[in-house]
Design goal:
five-stranded mixed beta barrel, four-stranded parallel beta sheet, 13 helices
């Protein structure tokens, strides 16, 4: 989502006459686009701002700005801690950035107004030229999970008009994009004038040139039969789903205000695996939430063993100001959180390896992305299940092509094979 927003900001600034600089030392304007989901991300941003402040001290004319969720979340503290900031702009203020930059002088320009109507319709984000592109289908969130700051920093749910999404996807297809990822904090809650998310997937699939469609992140409570049917019957919609669970304990899920039970979640997983052959699943797991006891943690481990995710994003719980859980405080010591996190990571690494080894000897259609990070003469791409496949390059195979790859070995993080 931050990549998509950064591409959106680039488009806004280019329209106002700005051009990308090769490096910070050459820039007249430096903007940091930020996330407020976890405390660690904010700590890194403060450190980066301190580095840039030294650059600004040498070049006083440099305009330095902070964008996105962290700007929305901590605007007052930021202006106090980072007095050298010229711009503080929230996620709904990007159209006004050129004007803010023009007015930035002695006092910082702060615009963090949330706008329930803003979907940035009519602005085409500047695509980076890769074979995959991110298209925002909806902004904001209405779920208000107890641990999550997103509804407070990105506003309430609003969906982008289907015609606008189709226009953007068609433009990207004409530019050589082969895979589209539809974005939304709860993307499967998409609704616009009677068009729900399953129907939107069908509409996007009719656009020529696009070979693969993915989406992230859905919410378990909004996974409708029509979305499952679209994944099962539309070949372009890929058999991969990121389905955040957060915890395997009903008690913790209720405290998190997630809106489902473990039983309901597992029934959904069963339905999807029955409907969609070769479905790959990933998830989010939070350890150490307020009130989580050892039995709750063990329940999470049991759920992971039951579902056997292909991979997972795993985090220690961190208090976020303004969330519903903030006033409850922490009940799990950081040392214990670290132990639990290490345990879930070790379990998931084991499961991921086992899942990937099941692919050895099988053939996959791999959408080639480019050179592999390691290995001279090797290419990398994604299987339909969004797993990274690595294989020797061959004449005539280029990024954007689909190669038939037979898997010969695997690690917990990738599949290794050969074109046949």
């Amino acid at each position: 989502m931050n990549i998509a927003d950064s591409q959106l900001v680039t488009s806004v600034l280019r329209s106002a006459g700005y051009a990308p600089a090769a490096c910070p030392e050459d820039a007249d304007v430096i903007l940091l686009n930020t996330c407020a989901i976890r405390e660690h991300a904010e700590d890194r941003v403060i450190g980066r701002l301190s580095d840039l402040a030294r650059l600004k001290a040498r070049r006083p004319g440099l305009k330095l700005g902070l964008l996105g969720c962290m700007a929305q979340h901590n605007r007052a503290a930021l202006v106090e801690k980072a007095a050298y900031l010229d711009i503080v702009a929230g996620p709904d203020s990007y159209r006004r950035l050129p004007d803010m930059l023009g007015r930035a002088a002695f006092d910082p320009q702060v615009d963090v107004r949330l706008d329930r109507a803003e979907t940035y319709e009519g602005i085409s984000p500047v695509h980076d030229g890769s074979i995959r592109a991110y298209v925002t289908a909806m902004r904001g969130c209405d779920k208000f999970c107890a641990f999550c700051v997103v509804p407070y920093v990105r506003g309430r749910e609003r969906s982008v008009a289907p015609a606008e999404i189709e226009r953007e996807v068609a433009k990207l297809a004409a530019a050589g994009v082969r895979e589209i990822v539809l974005l939304g904090q709860t993307v499967n809650a998409y609704r616009f004038d009677g068009v729900e998310f399953g129907a939107l997937l069908a509409r996007v699939a009719r656009i020529d040139g696009i070979e693969r469609i993915r989406f992230t992140s859905p919410h378990p409570s909004d996974m409708s039969d029509s979305v499952i049917e679209a994944m099962a019957t539309i070949p372009k919609v890929q058999p991969y789903l990121h389905l955040p669970v957060q915890s395997g304990s009903d008690r913790v899920l209720a405290a998190m205000e997630r809106g489902y039970t473990v039983e309901q979640y597992l029934k959904l997983v069963e339905q999807m695996r029955k409907s969609i052959p070769d479905l790959a699943l990933s998830t989010d797991v939070i350890v150490g939430f307020h009130g989580e006891e050892e039995r709750d943690f063990e329940a999470t481990l049991a759920l992971m063993r039951n579902v056997r995710y292909d991979h997972a994003f795993m985090f220690k719980y961190s208090l976020r100001e303004n969330t519903r859980a903030f006033k409850l405080g922490d009940t799990v010591a950081d040392e214990e959180k670290s132990r639990r996190l290490a345990t879930v990571i070790a379990l998931q690494e084991k499961i991921s390896l086992e899942r990937n080894l099941e692919s050895v000897g099988r053939d996959f259609a791999v959408l080639v992305e480019g050179p592999a990070r390691r290995g001279e003469g090797m290419l990398a791409g994604k299987t339909p299940q969004f797993k990274t496949a690595i294989f020797a390059a061959r004449d005539g195979i280029a990024p954007g092509d689909t190669a038939k790859v037979r898997i010969e070995s695997a690690t917990a993080h990738s599949l290794i094979g050969a074109i046949f």
